[in-house]
Amino acid sequence: AFLGYGDESENTALELTHNWETSAYELGNAYGHIAIEVEDVYAACDAIKAKGGEVVREAGPMKHGSTILAFVKDPDGYMIELLGAK
Question: Which CATH fold would you assign to the domain 2-84?
Fold first, then answer.
C-alpha cells in the first residue's frame, strides 16, 4: 500500500509491504525497507560512507532499467533504498 498526500512527483509517499512467511519480528526486521528519492544516489552514498554509515548495495543501475539505486543500513539494522536518476 502506498500512503501519501497528492501526486508522488511532488509529494512524499510511503510504501507499506507485507513480509510473507514471517511469523514474528525483531528490531531490524519489522519491515523490508523504505525508499527515499535523492537527487544523486552516488553522492548520497559517498556522504553516508563519509559519516561512517553502511552502504550494503553500492549505487548503480536497477536491473533491467535505468533508475539508479543503492541500499544503506540504518543504525538499527533497517534497510533504506536510495533512488534517483543519477
Answer: 2,3-Dihydroxybiphenyl 1,2-Dioxygenase; domain 1 (3.10.180)
